[in-house]
Amino acid sequence: MAGAFYPVPLALLGQRVRVRWEAHLVRVFQGDTLVMVHARVAAGVFAPRAGEAEASTRQQAFVDRLVGQCERVGPALKQWADAALAVRGVRAIRLIQGVLGLTRRHPRERVLAAVSEAHAHQHFRYQTIRQLVDRTPTRPAPTLVTEDPAIRPMTQYTLEDFLR
Q: What is the Cβ-side half-sphere exposure of residue 45, based on CA atoms within 13 angstroms?
């Protein structure tokens, strides 16, 4: 099932269960009793619980605020956040918060470059984004030029030049 997550009733916590999967379904058994049936999901994704609503109005307001923060950082981050929400639903909230946190510890340009690459490859995991940010090279700081034909030497200035 390649790292996907499927919920089961809490009563089964600590008990052995048997899992059978096929192309589109995952079935969870306790002994010979079928306990849960889930549609198969991609690696790293949590399967929704039965009857789980997509997003409450409070969650939606919070998501809108997060996407607004992403837009202020840069359009690439907003596009990535929109795509993450489309793929992962409300489970992308923590992911987006984490990536916004990266903007406090790393230069904005590095984070934007990382999410652009992640978006191109449809990567929506925090660890992937963080690794991309760490791998992105930093631009060297510009050096200041002290000698240039356009700059007059300090010996040509007089005190009267500054007092006028």
A: 19
Task: Determine how many CB atoms are found less than 10 A away from the CB of residue 129.
Answer: 23
pTM comes to 0.54
Tokens of 146: 């002290």
> How many angstroms separate the CA atoms of 59 and 97, rounded?
13
Token duo for residue 16: 């052995």
Does residue 46 have a pLDDT over 90? no
29 SS3 class: strand
CA distances from 100 to 55, 69, 79, 94, 114 (A): 21, 8, 13, 10, 12
Amino acid at 154: M
Place of tokens 């949590």: 46
**Where do runs of H (alpha helix) occur along the chain?**
57-73, 75-88, 93-105, 108-120, 126-135, 159-163
Residues paired with residue 47 on neighbouring β-strands, in sequence order:
none
| Average pLDDT in the chain | 85
